[in-house]
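Example A, followed by Example B.
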Amino acid sequence: MIELRLWRQFVTLAEELHFGRAALRLHMTQPPLTTAIQGLERSIGVPLFVRTRRSVVLTPAGAALLPAARRLLAAAEGLPRVAQAAAAGLAGQLRLAFVSNIAYGPLPEWLRSFREAHPDVALQLREATLDVQLEAFDADEIDAGFVLHAPGAAPPGFAAWAALAEPLVMALPAAHPAAALPAVRLADVAGEPLVIFPRQIAPSLFDAVLAAYRAQGATPRIAQEAIQMQTIVNLVSAGMGVAWVPVSVTQLQRPGVAYRRVDDAGLHCETSLIWRAPPPPVVQRFIDHVMSQAPTPPLLAATAQQRQSPAGRQRR
């Protein structure tokens, strides 16, 4: 390893092409500079300067080395700024996981604005359900994650912030009689086969859905389980059953599917941002950013309750 001090001496001499002037710039005397350059040439194994009584000239090897040596010194000078930016959360890497429903909602805009405000932070994104995220946290593969759960039931052991609160609505096959109504009662659909996510990916929300059925004296007839919201909606479109989905998922307009409120079910969900405390600076920057950008949940709910599929509007 050759010390940065030697590269600085080499660059200075290459710019001055005079040992005396170079030594003056370096705040040293000429003999130590001559000795240092000779030592550098021995370390590299090639001459970097041609010396005569009247001149000092770069050899081809020295001329080729000069741009790289300048880049090296510039990079070294920038190291404190890199460390300071990382310590302030302005640079580094953010490994973020998320559930699909928030990707249909505000997450894309949050990511866009965060990237604009923090261009030196590298975002590593990963779509994953709660169970997968918990394993990723344990393996130190992610720094933060958006997870889906029943209201007030964020996973224990994490710092959490409720980023999104929204009702669950019913996804119906467009040919279902209830699709002709602006809203339905749970009793109208309680006997229908249910397409639902496995309990392990959102246990609190799964249990809340079952509790809503039990409160109506009904038992859900689970016909199919699927992990991704898009898959669940596609199965509804294929006539496999009905499904409960967060209202943000109604952005996914799949032909053959109608979304309807079920007012008497009272089912809601939350999507929380979770992280281990205390968060690294770059994670804290992201937390602060999304908190400042988050829309109000009632606005999201009011907008989504008006949304219907084209097929549903035609039946009305």
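Example B, a separate protein, is given below in the same form.
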Amino acid sequence: MLLKKKWPALLLIVCLVVCLAACSGSPELAPEEGAAVAQSEPEESAAAEEGAEETPSLSQNEAGVYEIDSAADFVAFAQLLKEETLAGIGEGRLMHDAALTADIDLSEAIAQDSDLLPLGGPYTVEIDGEERQMQAAFCGEFNGNGHTISGIQLDTSERGDAGLFSLVYNWDDTPQTKIHDLTIADSSFMGLRYAGAFAGTASRNAILENCVTAESVSVTTTEGAAGGIVGYASDGDLLLRACENYGTISGEWAGGIAGAAESYSYLVQCNNYGVVTGENAAGIIARHAGSSYYDGLVLACINYGTVKAEEGGLACGIVAANGSTLRYCVNAGLVDGGETGEAYAVGKKDGSMYCSGNIGTVSSSNPYVYQYGFSWDLGTYEGLSEEALAGVQGYTGKALMGVDIEFTPLPVSAAADGSLTAVLQGNGEYGYWQQGNEGFPVWDEQGGLDDYPWLQELLSAE
């Protein structure tokens, strides 16, 4: 199913046919520059550069899907994408479908200094005596079939984004771009501006679903945005659904699932279990732009991991800088602002934030207690006196503009015994909670979807 499309994403298409000179410095985090794709007609000798060996044969099934059952097959697939990019085939579009049929270990197959990764580039070539970077976007389907790719040691801090794919994108006239049912393990990713285990940048109606970043993975940027799944989600209806991060994430903007995202990006039922550290750090997404009028969504996401702010920074359980819509999210981990930073159980009061809760621990010199409409809080706030904490623990009543928030005090045990869930369920239109196996209320997978009919359709189809 194609997601709805918005005209701002058309701006990205212009970038997809431009040849860029290799950058010598580290640009500031800028959405309009985040998904640039190098595209040019290289000299005839470019495809014959060192390392561009003849592509081994790849096996395709009757549906035209490349079946990858070994490291050699993966290398051949990577080489195919590189050769097509350098030859200008597809005008910046890598329209191939692939499926894993076995676990793949790339530790002996792709050297750390190889440019076969990220898939799609950037590849450095010499054209008219000048070094250029060429890049193409993956716009097919990559089906992990429940398998694992391991052994990636990738450092693109001198040339661009880091991830299994550099850029994942979908055109209006191409089938749905999708990466799904895949785990990445025993790997490290370091990028210049954007880094994610699965994609440095993802955009334009693409879907990443059931993607898992294992505990043995680290994702880092020298500056910019780092995410356990995606570094940067540029404008254009990206959906991250049922993705999980267990890895270690660090960067200027660091998120367990995504580092930064623009309008019309959606994170649904994603969980973080890993350690996230940054100047701006969050369990799910560090920066989510938008106007809060339903042009972006963080729904039913849970943070179980440890989120740490660097000195003087910001740590949040779900989202650090939010300009979109957040509903039915829960922090169940440690949010640590340190001695000089800020710490928020869920996030700062930006955008539209309702119906979320905290069962975790918030630690800083000045911890912030989450008190938004239809929210609940049975967490631990280090630094607050028992008397101060007792005044705010419990269920938060409806909060309207200019109206004081009312509380129904509840003991901490109310989360596990179901009594908190019962109170939430009785609260009208925002009572879409059920008792979760985790010992606290979770989204009931029904409420809050009225403004997202495409998401309703997607969830009901399964």
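On Example B: Confidence is low (pLDDT under 50) at residues 1-55, 398-403.
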